[in-house]
Design brief:
Order of helices and strands: EEEEEEEEHHHHHEHHEEEEEEHEEEEH
Radius of gyration: 29 Å
Mean pLDDT: 81
Largest sheet: 7 strands, mixed
Strand content: 15-25%
Helix content: 25-40%
CATH superfamily of the largest domain: Chloramphenicol acetyltransferase-like domain
Distance between the termini: 44 Å
Oligomer: single chain
CATH topology of the largest domain: Chloramphenicol Acetyltransferase
Number of helices: 9
Number of domains: 2
Low-confidence stretches: 78-114, 116-122, 164-195
Number of strands: 19
């Protein structure tokens, strides 16, 4: 199962395009998979014959799981033999030497006499095998919690740390019973197992276990779908990693309204769709050039200043949320950004995005205001330093000052509240204030030639 994005942990086999025994060519699509973000056809890694399908349609497995086996010499397809009920009188067959070389779709070569589940049970990622080798552990002795009993990294770490044997693989250790002469002797202190610091931080930054609550009689319980589950995990981890601070500013959209009214007919003739969000994205992409810390991220004890301005644009899937990315937004004009946002949002809702279109964001814009929200406190996506939330654009009564006479008067203007959440490890409050002030200036004096 290939990884179709940096945050994708599993995939579902939607359809097999080839059947057992079919000839396949290198790069020829052999199956379709579905993830929480992307649907895609998966090509064959080699010429040969499809000899075994290890994951059936509709099954969901972890990234890296073997889904099929291809015989590069075109041998016969594997056929599962009936299970033998009694093993007492069974005579084991001597496995023959393989006559051809096989290639896995995902991991290693197949053992001709083992079933798919047995292979998944005994196989694991290189990381797990390395850990097992370093600690002298036989992976077959570890109870796996992955698909079909596959041993995960956490399984091997738990086995090593707590010496958890698999069922029936170890004999109980006899515990000596103290005699009457030993009663007065103090018992040795039992040291509780504790995780190494590196393991603790790895778990803290990568794994989430939600607390459970009692279910009442009138309640309905439904499992989270993949999008909700992954969103929940990402939000928890994002809040763990970055100390969040939020700042706010109010934006006057009068100048932008004037440009939209003036350009409406021209844009219609061009087939362009330029929303308020397009104006915001254009302005953000230019201002980010002036504030490299806002377009950066912390990596260990280093700061990575991103060389590209890639804007993540949050899209409501109702239910669910996805964030496609406008890459190099600072190289696009206003109409180009507007068309790109519409295209990405449309294909996001149709589940037709490709992996590159949901990766690499350096800054994110979310627009809860489109649903009427005045302002929000968005969560910073991991791997970035800031996120901008745009509130509803509404007509408000404001005080304006005449530039010639200096007198004040009341007027009606279209206004919106913006909030910016930023990682206080790298972005100071003054930096955020300057960024928002510059963004406000850019939007309220928007150039006609953008």
């Amino acid at each position: 199962m290939p990884q179709m994005g940096e945050s994708i942990a599993e995939g579902t086999v939607s359809q097999w395009l080839k059947q057992l025994g079919d000839k396949v060519e290198r790069d020829e699509p052999i199956l379709e998979i579905s993830t929480d973000k992307v649907d895609a056809e998966i090509p064959s890694p080699s010429d040969g014959t499809l000899v075994e399908i290890a994951v059936q349609e509709g099954e969901t497995v972890e990234v890296g799981t073997v889904v099929a086996y291809i015989d590069t010499e075109g041998g016969p397809a594997a056929v599962a033999e009936p299970t033998v009920e009694s093993e007492v009188d069974a005579t084991p067959e001597v496995p023959q030497e393989p006559e051809t070389e096989s290639v896995e779709v995902a991991l290693e070569a197949s053992d001709g006499h083992t079933s798919a589940e047995e292979r998944l049970r005994t196989r694991s990622t290189p990381v797990v095998r390395k850990i097992a080798e370093e600690h002298g552990v036989n992976i077959q002795d570890v109870s796996g919690t992955g698909h079909a009993g596959r041993v995960t990294k956490q399984d091997i770490l738990d086995f090593i740390e707590y010496a958890v044997p698999s069922s029936g693989s170890a004999q109980p250790v006899p515990v000596p019973v103290p005699t009457s002469s030993d009663v007065s002797s103090p018992l040795p202190a039992v040291r509780e197992p504790s995780a190494a610091p590196s393991d603790l931080w790895t778990t803290f930054y990568r794994e989430v276990q939600h607390p459970e609550f009692p279910v009442r009689s009138a309640d309905t319980v439904e499992p989270m779908d993949k999008i909700r589950r992954l969103t929940a995990e990402h939000m928890v981890i994002a809040k763990r990693v970055a100390p969040h601070v939020h700042s706010f500013i109010e934006i006057d959209f009068s100048a932008i309204d004037f440009i939209r009214a003036e350009s409406k007919e021209r844009w219609v003739s061009q087939g362009a769709r330029v929303s308020y969000t397009a104006f915001v994205a254009w302005a953000v992409s230019r201002v980010l050039r002036e504030f490299p810390t806002v377009n950066s991220t912390i990596s260990g004890n280093n700061i990575i200043y991103r060389g590209n301005v890639n804007l993540g644009m949050a899209v409501d899937l109702n239910p669910g949320l996805i964030v496609p990315v406008v890459h190099d937004a600072d190289h696009l004009g206003l109409v180009g950004i507007g068309n790109k946002i519409v295209d990405l949002a449309t294909r996001a809702r149709d589940r037709k995005l490709v992996p590159d279109e949901i990766q690499g964001a350096t800054f994110t814009i979310t627009n809860p205001g489109v649903l009427g929200t005045l302002v929000g406190l968005p969560v910073i996506p991991k791997g970035t330093a800031a996120i901008l939330g745009t509130g509803a654009i509404e007509k408000r009564v404001v005080v304006v000052t005449d530039p010639d006479t200096g007198t004040d008067s009341m007027a009606i203007r279209k206004k919106s509240l913006f909030s910016m959440g930023y990682d206080h490890r790298i972005v100071d409050g003054a930096d955020a204030a300057r960024f928002l002030a510059r963004l406000k200036e850019t939007l309220e004096t928007f150039p006609n030639d953008a």
